[in-house]
Amino acid sequence: MEITNDIVVDAPLDRVWTYMLDVPNLAPCLPGAELTGDDGNGTYDGKVVARLGPVKLFFSGKARIVSTDEASHTLVLHAAGAEDKGKGTADMTLTATLVPSSGGRTTMKVVQDLTISGAAAQFGRGMIADVTSVLMRSFAECLQYNINNQGGGGTATAIRAAKPASGFAIGVRAAWMALTRVFARFFLPYDRNR
After folding, report:
1. Among residues 121, 133, 114, which one has the least CA distance to residue 180?
2. Which of 21, 162, 167, 192 could make an SS bond with 142 (beta carbons 3.0 to 4.6 A apart)?
3. In what helix (H) or strand (E) does residue 133 lie, and over which residues does it extend?
């Protein structure tokens, strides 16, 4: 499944781009992610705790930046892993494209091509997309905070990690997003351009 999110970071494009290329610095901003190893050649071992409503899943796997394009400020990251206590797997190719926005901000279009199996797959595309949108907001807040609070503008150890999101909070936000879509579809005037 493909999930697309647009997020805005209140920081200049060059600083966001530099931060995005530093995987050890970036990982703590991904809610539930933790790096556990580095092979020295750009591949990182890590763990991810994924919360889908009341279910909490633990994955271990590897991630690496596959390609970067300085001219278009596009990076492609691949991550794959398996559940620690289950038969589920997750494979994701994430493409992030950065563009400057008004007021010195940066807009980031994030496209995730995600393949999952096991317990996580039973939640369906809508729930997974809504949970991903909630997590992307937390990612953007962490990214912005860390970029804007670094001394000298360079990369350093992350100042703070993304706030952990409880399963209940994610579930409530995702349910609200789903209800908003349903309301818009059935009660607002139809727009053929949607």
Report:
1. 133
2. 162
3. helix 124-148
Per-residue tokens: 111: 């496209």
Q: Phi, psi (5° rounding) for residue 14?
A: -60, -35
Q: What strand order describes the sheet that includes 2-9?
A: 2-9, 106-116, 89-100, 74-83, 55-69, 43-52, 33-38
What is the C-alpha separation between 141 and 118, in angstroms, rounded?
A: 30
Cα–Cα distance for residue pair 34/28, rounded to 1 Å: 6
Residues 6+ apart with CB under 8 A from 46: 27, 33, 34, 35, 36, 37, 60, 61, 62, 63, 79, 81
DSSP single-letter state for residue 164 = P
- For residue 54, the tally of other CB atoms under 10 A from its CB is 9
Closest CA to 89 of 58, 45, 64: 58
Q: Give the type of residue at 79.
A: A
Phi, psi at 103, each rounded to 5°: 70, 20
List of residues 6+ apart from 175 with CB closer than 8 A: 130
Residue 74 in 3-state DSSP?
strand
* Residues 105-164: tens digit of each pLDDT: 999 999 988 888 887 777 666 667 777 777 788 888 888 888 888 754 454 444 666 655
Q: Which residues of 146-167 are buried (b: 16+ CB within 10 A; e: fewer)?
A: bbeebeeeebeebeebbeebee
